[in-house]
Write a structure and sequence with these properties.
Elements (H helix, E strand, L loop, with lengths): L5 H8 L5 H11 L10 H20 L4 E5 L6 H13 L8 E5 L4 H8 L20
Parallel strand pairs: 1-2
Helix pairs in contact: 3-4
């Protein structure tokens, strides 16, 4: 691209002409680490504290919302949904939603396709990361 300084590159990616390059920069900088039930302690808390509170709220006529920010290719929000259904089996009959977002458009597109590339597929056990 011929930029001679970081400032020049930054100015470019922040301009309308650099919109596509901004997406490339975001994809290069994001880690995209994801696994089903990746952080055991988070899911234990979700299942023992958060979901029972959500269930009580929605059974009383309220809404239940969970947000997986920086969801990468989607394993965490799917894990959240599985946790919801295991703790609150009739959640589908209520106003319960899981929102999944990420700054990296490429991984969001992959998540939206509901597919996992073969190279990333591996068996998982609840509460165990593939590296444990």
């Amino acid at each position: 691209m011929g930029h001679t300084s970081f400032r020049s590159y930054l100015d470019y990616v922040q301009s309308p002409a650099g919109r596509g390059e901004m997406e490339n920069l975001i994809c290069a900088l994001t880690t995209n680490v994801t696994n089903f039930f990746r952080e055991k302690n988070h899911f234990t808390h979700l299942e023992e504290v958060v979901i029972p509170n959500i269930a009580a709220t929605v059974r009383a006529g309220g809404r239940g919302r969970l947000w997986s920010a920086a969801c990468s290719t989607g394993q965490e929000p799917w894990s959240m949904a599985m946790s919801v259904m295991s703790v609150f089996p009739d959640a589908a009959n209520h106003d319960v939603r899981v929102l999944a977002t990420d700054i990296n458009g490429q991984v969001v597109a992959q998540a939206a396709s509901a597919s996992i590339p073969r190279k990333r597929q591996r068996p998982f056990r609840r509460g165990k990361s593939p590296s444990s």
